[in-house]
Amino acid sequence: MRKRSPLILGLMRMDDVTVEELEELLFFAKDNGIDYLDVADVYSRGRAEDVLGQVFKLHPELRDAFFLQTKVGIVNREGHTGYYDFSKEHIVTGFKESLQRLGLDHVDSLLLHRPDIFMDREEVLSALRQLREEGLVQHFGVSNMDREQIEYLEGEDIDFEVDQLQLGLGQLSLVSSTFNVNLPSTFSTQSDGLFFYLKKRKMYLQCWSPFQVGLFEGSIFRHPSMANCRILLNQLSSKYRVSAPAIALAFLLNLGENVEVIVGGLKKDYLVTAIQARNLRLEKEDWYRLYLSTGNRLP
């Protein structure tokens, strides 16, 4: 596996971020050891890539300072219902449009953004091979896919290095399913072994929205269901002498060397919090206490 920072600066919330603000944030991230950027063609309807491209044009040295990852596959145009499209035409055309917005001739990694029910393995592989042969991208991954979908899409010459999944104290289904094997459905849905599948393959598990409850139901620091968790986070904050959000991020980073966390707050203080978590090792008992504080159970 490539050696890199386990923290990724995510650029999803770019609606109101100016070129100057992003420029300042990227220099701060670089100076503090964060060397990975995550963006997508649909973030802020293309504006995220466009603003990032403007920063790179002003400061070409910043492009070389980061491992850059974008995504393709979600179609969400103005006036149209959103849908997913993994056709060869859309993958190739959509990715090249990303390059135009970024003002670049290549990026480091491309993720297939959520599974398309109509995806055809050979068509997807043909698209990825073409992009690689043209020198536009060398690394590939997926987002929000299970084990069967990953194995269906991969080819002998195309390996996926990343699966980007929602994971955090407010959304722990990936973790809870590993504990509740062969138990009634009232405890948990059955696991397809995805967590340990990624770990065994040394695929990166990239955790998005680490502070969200459910699917965008609110923050773990405000949602009523997370009151007990907040109490414990504050107690552990005093114990480890870092902020409560840093404890929540360390909870994820402690899961393994293949785990990375996407930091989506585009403010310096948010990055400072994330940096506190980078090398923080929680005691195993504290990790389990946090897990239980969310309302999840151990059999």
Short summary:
By secondary structure, the chain is α/β, with parallel strands linked by helices. It has twelve helices and ten strands. The strands form two sheets. It has an eight-stranded parallel β-barrel with strand order 1-2-3-6-7-8-9-10, surrounded by four helices.
Give the key terms:
299 residues, alpha/beta, eight-stranded parallel β-barrel, two-stranded antiparallel sheet, 12 helices, 10 strands, 42% helix
Write the layout of secondary structure elements.
Elements lengths: L6 E4 L8 H13 L4 E3 L8 H12 L1 H6 L1 E6 L1 E2 L7 E2 L3 H15 L6 E5 L7 H13 L5 E5 L3 H7 L6 E7 L6 H7 L14 H8 L2 E5 L18 H14 L3 H10 L5 E5 L4 H10 L6 H10 L6
Parallel strand pairs: 1-2, 1-10, 2-3, 3-6, 6-7, 7-8, 8-9, 9-10
Antiparallel strand pairs: 4-5
Would you write up a description of this structure?
The strands form two sheets. The chain has an eight-stranded parallel β-barrel with strand order 1-2-3-6-7-8-9-10, surrounded by four helices. Strands 4-5 form a two-stranded antiparallel ribbon. Helix content is 42%, strand content 15%. The protein has helices spanning 19-31, 47-58, 60-65, 88-102, 121-133, 147-153, 173-179, 194-201, 227-240, 244-253, 268-277, 284-293; strands at residues 7-10, 36-38, 67-72, 74-75, 83-84, 109-113, 139-143, 160-166, 204-208, 259-263. It is built from twelve helices and ten strands. Helix 9 packs across helix 10 (244-253) and helix 9 (227-240) packs antiparallel against helix 12. With 299 residues, it is of the alpha/beta class. The protein is globular and about 50 Å long.
